[in-house]
Amino acid sequence: MLIKLIVELVIGGLCGYAANRIMHGKTDDVLLNVILGLVGGVVGGVIGNLLGVGGGWITGILLCIGGSCLVVWLWRKFIK
User: Fold this and answer.
1) Confidence tier at 56 by pLDDT (50, 70, 90)
2) Separation CA 59–CA 55 (nearest Å)
3) How far apart are CA 10 and CA 16, in angstroms?
4) Domain extent listing, the chain
5) Which of 15, 21, 29, 62 could cysteine-pair with 37, CB 3.0–4.6 Å?
């Protein structure tokens, strides 16, 4: 249980970092990247389920990065 949580936090952080780089982010705030990555993972998972896409861990990571990009865009549009 604890190991799974740590792995999810690391993957979420990496997806948030990747989304920040893809979206040409100027911030290197690790905590913000982790939070946006985790939220993006949830958003990407929901979108994937609605579209009927899923199955493997590569698909999950791509959905997480895509969802993170969407969350980063929304963050910049409405928060900053």
Assistant:
1) confident
2) 7
3) 10
4) 30-80
5) 15
User: What's the 3-state SS for the chain?
Assistant: CHHHHHHHHHHHHHHHHHHHHHCCCCCCCHHHHHHHHHHHHHHHHHHHHHHCCCCCHHHHHHHHHHHHHHHHHHHHHHHC
Closest CA to 63 of 1, 18, 4: 18
Cα Rg of the chain, angstroms: 12
Write out the two tokens for 25.
């982010």
pTM over 0.85: no
Largest CA distance in the chain: 36
- In 3D space, the residue among 79, 64, 76, 78 whose CA is nearest the CA of residue 25 turns out to be 76
